[in-house]
Amino acid sequence: MSDHAVGTPSFERPAWLGMLEPLGPLVAAFVVAGLVLLAAGHNPLEVYMLLATEAFGSSRRIAATLSAATPLILTGLATAVAFRAGAFNVGVEGCIFVGGLAAAYVGFTFAGLPAALLLPFALVAAVVVGSLWMLVPGLLKARLDVDEVVTTLMLNFIAISLTAWLVNGPLLAPGSANSATPMIAEAARLPKLMPPSTLNAGFLIAIALLGLYALWGNRTALGFETRIAGMNPRFATASGIDVPMLVIKMMLLSGAIGGLAGGIHALGNVGRFVAGFSPGYGFTGIAVALLGRGSALGIFLAALLFGALANAGATIQFFSDVPIEIVDILQGTVMVFAVAQLGRLIVRRRKAA
Amino acid sequence: MIDNIIHAAVVMTTPVLLAALGGLINRVGGIVNIGLDSMMLAGALFGLIVASMTGSWPVALLAAAAAGGVVGLAMSLAVTRLQANEIIVGLGFLVAVAGLVRFFLSAAYGSSGTLSLPDVARLPRIDIPLVADIPVLGAILSGHDPLTWAAWAMVPVTVWFLARTRLGLRLRAVGAAPQAARALGLNPLMLRDLSTVYAGIMSGLAGASLSIGVVGIFNEGITAGRGFIALAAFYFGRNRPWATAACALLFGFFDAFQIRMQGRGVPAELVQTLPYLMVIVVLTAVALAGRRAKARRA
Amino acid sequence: MQLAETTPDRTVRLGAQGVTRRFGPVLANDAIDFRALRGTVHAIVGGNGAGKSTLMRILQGVDRPDSGVILLDGAPAIFAGPADAFARGVGMVHQEFMLAPGLTLLENLVLAAEPVDGFGRIDRTAALAKARALEALAGVSLDWDTPVENAPVHVRQIVEILRLLYRGADVLILDEPTAVLAPAQVRELIALLRKLRDEGRTILFISHKLDEVLAVADEITVIRNGRVVASLPRSSASRDSLAEMMIGEVLARPQPRAAAAGAPMLQVTGLSARDLRGHAALTKFDLTVRAGEIVGIAGVAGNGQDEIVAAATGLGRIDAGSIRLDGIEIAGLTLAQRRSLGLAYLSPDRAAEGLCLAAPIAENAIAGHHRKPELCSHGVLRRKAIARHVAALLDRYSVKRASDRQPAGSLSGGNQQRVAVARELDGEPKLLVACQPTRGVDIRGIDFIHRCLIDYRDRGGAVLLVSEELEELVTLSDRIVVVYGGRITGEVARGTAGLEEIGRLMLGGKAA
Q: Which domains, from first to last, does chain C contain?
């Protein structure tokens, strides 16, 4: 190296890298999963084609995919709302459980109410309970600077065990041996959009919230403040924004949306609350929010992707011997690669060259 | 009855203690390892397979340790070399490894979630004559497998390692002040990788203690979230080996207690929430104490 | 065989030759030359922003010069990083200490070069023996088993120095080493440094405290605005001559005021506050800024300026005192409430606090104003109104940009600061607290920002100006209040006192 050319090396990112950024983790994950498939003696391309056909091949399949994407849109949104304020909420899974149970409880307890009252009542219960579930970690982070990752992670397990206790004891359906509440009243069910598909009005609620989220993020003072606070809290504070208060608000909002996801799952799909209610929607929501880079469209596309994988994964076992778990492998690797600085691999190679 | 509970508590403590000691070293080195459970799962599976293949439990333990270590290495590289957020990488590994394990079971054995193999070499139980007959003490000391003894032996070893060895000192320095350590010529990333591989090895052994120690078969839910209990243990023990071990033992008691109490009116599910609740309480108490100390100084 | 005397270069243990480092439009180091001879204490003196810290980073291998070289034993050298510099005998004692918390003093001493036995176990006896030897050398006595976080500051500093010796460094760079020390400890440190020098080590002593420099140095290099002003032996230096060189010829062009000062906009009375460490930083401090007046605060960094700003803006806590904004008590109010009463605050740290570099310029330009009725109705941003407002505002302040939507971080430093100034002066605040308003800004930008402040004053605005640039203070201020150790050492009205006088007050002298 010559003496006069030793300025600090700064890496100028090529423009194409920025544009392809969200695709990087996807490609990397599909490559990893492809290697797994290869090792198991499958042709990855064939499997991926099959998955695509199963997910989008007919209107019935598309409906199933959208139905599977519904909780993921909501959990992705719940995660993104907190991310935006700089709070790393990994506790949406817990909100699904408590929110789902709250909605189911209202749904079978106040069975006498008409649908116009019962359904909103049940959903509001899910929202309120989900929101309250995030009150403690929100307060702890904002007021005492307690790491919200650990507290929300721990609250997930508490929520899962607590609801499992409730449906095994106080709320167990009479005459039922398994851990489940009674079925909710017909009036509390979210109307189906395309029977016999499970696609229901919850999807419309999720889409509406996605739209509101986009408007909120781009058009409202609160959305603006949240974004600024998430990007640079010191700047936000110097601009007169009460950052701790904002963190609390966004944690509550995140919990509310997570609770709603549970409520919609209970009222739209399951029809009651059972132990093991969510197959990890809250965790998939983290992958959705990361992959979608916090934008409404991105969240929708990412939720659609994971919904398609879950839906197609469930059916391809009937047509092939590809294990459904390939979907989990994809999802986990997407999460890892979504936060990895893949660019660093390129930089290093360049430096070596 | 009390002897049974004590014995079960010691048995249930072992996997948590092993993983917690691994996670503790990892955290001392500067990485909060959320993915311990995935390394346990890998260790449990490969421990069982090799135990069946070779009929030798020591070889099986080596395989379990290697499986956990490989998962740990992969996770560490993502965190240290690709600068990925350790929490999300941990969560991603939980999902991916669980999927990979089930994929493997279904692709290689055509089974869904459970694997039962012939001729599994189980961990031997070490019965101590005379002591075994003493109430309480017998339950504490006798009838446990070598991993249990190893796990408890590792507690003072961990204390000694961190306090007295060169590597332990460097690990502490790297975790507490990576910049300063680098300025002195240490390689923080390498040391962190090492500590994560170690966490993986210990978690792999923890998994084996479940699959070839306690149960004798593999099940996708075999860890039952014990990786997170381990996380709770070293958070609660605030990185001190003996305190962490005490927490692991306490959680082991909860575990044994709730298994015993099932169907007797004591809600097992509520007992299960205790470790997690305790972590939140401890974090809050520490933050409050920190704030009070600051207020006093000001 | 050649002897050392015939290769005179070898006497230069560490030096710089033509070291130049540029950050955007700012020349932080401009052809810096100095030579620290073996067995001497070489002081590098300069005010804040003179380029000392950039030079230190280069000498440590943390940063590299755009041109020029480091001299090591008289020969050009490049350090790959701090570890490399260290391996070649050059060690640094940092301002914020680099000891690892959770480790004892002894562990920190031997870290990364531990004496071990065959099993990788630390040989505590050997470590302690070495520690005791170093202790004797330094003439101190330490409890080596104390955890670092329990040790007082001056002990930590000694341990850090001893660690360098333990690792065999014979060049010690000390960056503002006395900033955290009490006077008695300063004397001890100076004695220690002399001792180390007498044993043949080379010491680079970076400071802006002239008394200490004069007490310890053999050679003194003065830098200002990134350039070496003078290199001279201690014998030919005096406090006054150094102060003059440090502060320099100021091209002050005081701007006449359009109108007499009006009603008091900021009234601070009996203010007491502590710094981040909890030490008293201000005691019973009084200050008034009137409408149509720029009041400058002069002082060497760390003499209470930060606390004055924190108290006025509400970003820090105060212990006692009253703060009034246009007659209204604001001491208990948040920054948001103060802003709505007419306070504006231009942050000294543009990248971390003054702007959000990742956000579009437009958003930076409205932050804090975004809830005003003309920009926002019922919580919904009025996008067209905002776009119009931002475009007009940025045009008025001549911010050179491709688009209002480009990230603020893509602008040059000068244009970034224009955005911040535009935002703060938008809506005609009653009081502007302006800190280091032209830090890292090019010449043209400086003139423009100065013009903005003066125009604002002439429209009746009140400005509290905190700056480390004396030239800036003299150019802009109608009154200069000089602070030292949290007290006012003097007040100088426009054009009534020379720079020597201000410099003397800044260094703690009483008003004549």
A: 9-247 (3.40.50.300), 250-342+429-512 (3.40.50.300), 357-427 (no CATH)
